[in-house]
Design brief:
496 residues, Rossmann fold, 6-stranded mixed beta sheet, 5-stranded parallel beta sheet, 21 helices, 44% helix, globular
Length: 496
């Protein structure tokens, strides 16, 4: 496999080089030169475990890691650090199959990739003869930060800096981050939203002066966001695994098509589903579910991406995003032709400049498998209540957005193709909103009272990760303006 930038096709990189760099030198994102095909017939491996599926799928895209390396990484990443031996359990509710991706150490789907990325990263450094210390630079809308911190804490040869919107995440999400242990970790709140944090991180990646300064001090930047191909590839695995599960459960027959509904913010999770479809998974439609910040819904509806709009803080904060970075990869793939890099670069320049761009009709035609929808706060709360009342299923706010959008899609289109919903976080991470939606009388302003009340309502045990942060042992308390992010990084690395 060779990787190249979405914005220029004149330089190629090995998989491990792409993982190590995180972002292409020209500011674009790494994409595969050609997309491989599934090494087995989908749905015809009934005894396949999650680890076996992971080893085969990741081996396709990251093929300069040896089979022994990949097997070792997979076994270490997906072990007793997950609270369910199946790694990804499934639950049928509300007429769909919920794929629970939140049974890892930080109770969010980001664990599925960030438990293995540090292993890819350290091996990549060795493969490419890098003796520099890798600085993981990450912006988070809530869940990536803790998952990345948990994955990289005390990993030799690495340091990690996480920026998050100070007033734009849930209390549980914030406490998970600011209590993180590890001498190589740094967490900083910013006075802004996720887009501000993400813009600051991308600016640092392409700041030649800053990179030269760090290189002289023995450091190099890389990323744990889904802009890193090593973060994105592991997310392809669970869609392939979900298909096999649906066959095993008798929901479909091998070869039947499915629909996939994904709560979407930065576009990485649904892009992984797109790649699963591209390598041969029988997927009919990809249902892109947005919250009140419906920039993606409007894009799929009109063909114009426009971030010039009001930003809303919602009960599904991991989706409170107006610049969906991974959409750049999809834009590249639908450009088509020899000038696809130039087209993509031009559109991204428009986004950086005016904050908007429009695709042409031929590109719109290549998006036919995507269906956009959105759920506002009222509809999200109603869906949480509906699922619990009808099925006893407790969904977090993000998963409820996807479920509501899938229901709307089915009602309007009549398409009842069997569907998988990506359930992306434990409901305990957003207990106040979940409790209020299920039983308003049990809502309390204290989030941890809501945690206990949710346990009473649902009969689901309170995760130990929640109990550990009730009385926080705060390790990180810095807050800065977005314009000061580079200064904070220099201070942490001792090069200020």
């Amino acid at each position: 496999m060779r990787y190249m930038s979405t914005r220029s096709g004149d330089e190629f990189f090995s998989p491990s080089e792409a993982v190590l760099k995180g972002i292409a030198p020209d500011g674009g994102l790494f994409v595969p030169e050609s997309v491989p095909k599934l090494p087995f017939a989908p749905g015809k491996c009934p005894d396949m475990t999650y680890r076996e599926c992971a080893q085969q799928i990741m081996g396709l895209f990251l093929d300069d890691y040896t089979e022994d390396e990949m097997r070792s990484f997979v076994e270490e990443a997906y072990s007793d650090n997950f609270d369910d031996s199946r790694i990804v359990p499934f639950r049928k509710a509300g007429g769909a199959m919920f794929m629970e991706l939140w049974h890892g150490p930080t109770m969010a789907f980001k664990d599925m990739a960030l438990q293995i990325l540090p292993r890819f990263m350290t091996a990549a450094a060795a493969k490419n003869g890098s003796d520099e210390e890798t600085v993981i630079l990450t912006a988070t809308s809530g869940d990536t930060g803790k998952a990345a911190l948990a994955g990289f804490a005390d990993v030799p040869g690495t340091r990690i800096v996480v920026f998050y919107p100070k007033d734009g995440v849930s209390l549980v999400q914030e406490r998970q981050m600011i209590t993180q242990k590890g001498a190589n970790t740094c967490v900083i709140g910013i006075k802004g939203n996720f887009d501000d944090a993400q813009k600051g991180v991308k600016t640092m990646f392409t700041d030649e002066g800053l990179n030269e300064l760090l290189k002289g001090a023995g450091f190099r930047f890389s990323s744990a966001n889904s802009i890193n191909i090593g973060r994105l590839v592991p997310q392809i695995v669970y869609y392939v695994y979900a298909y096999q599960n649906m066959v095993n459960e008798g929901e479909i027959k091998a070869g039947d098509e499915i629909n996939i509904a994904v709560p979407t913010g930065n576009f990485g999770n649904i892009l992984a589903a797109y790649y699963a479809r591209t390598i041969g998974l029988p997927v009919k439609n990809l249902i892109c579910a947005s919250n009140k910040n419906k920039v993606l819904y409007d894009f799929f509806r009109t063909g114009t991406y426009d971030r010039n709009r009001e930003f809303y803080v919602t009960s599904s904060p991991s989706m409170d995003i107006l610049v969906s970075s991974n959409l750049e990869r999809l834009i590249y793939h639908i450009c088509g032709g020899e000038d696809s890099h130039e087209k993509c670069a031009s559109l991204m320049a428009g986004l950086s400049g005016s904050g908007r761009y429009s695709i042409d009709s031929s590109m719109e035609e290549r998006l036919s498998m995507f269906c956009g929808g959105y759920a506002d706060e009222e509809k999200t709360a109603a869906e949480i209540g509906r699922l619990f009342k009808e099925s006893g299923y407790v969904a977090d706010t993000h998963t409820a957005v996807a479920s509501a959008v899938l229901k709307d899609y089915r009602d309007k289109s009549g398409d009842m193709t069997p569907a998988v919903i990506a359930s992306t976080a434990s409901p305990y991470k957003f207990a106040p909103a979940v409790v209020k939606a299920i039983d308003p009388g049990m809502f309390d302003e204290d989030p941890f009272v809501c945690v206990d009340n949710l346990a009473k309502i649902s009969n689901l045990p309170v995760p130990r990760q929640i109990d550990e942060i009730r009385i926080p042992d705060i390790k990180h308390d810095r807050v800065c303006d977005p314009a000061e992010m580079d200064i904070e990084v220099k201070r942490f690395l001792g090069v200020l």
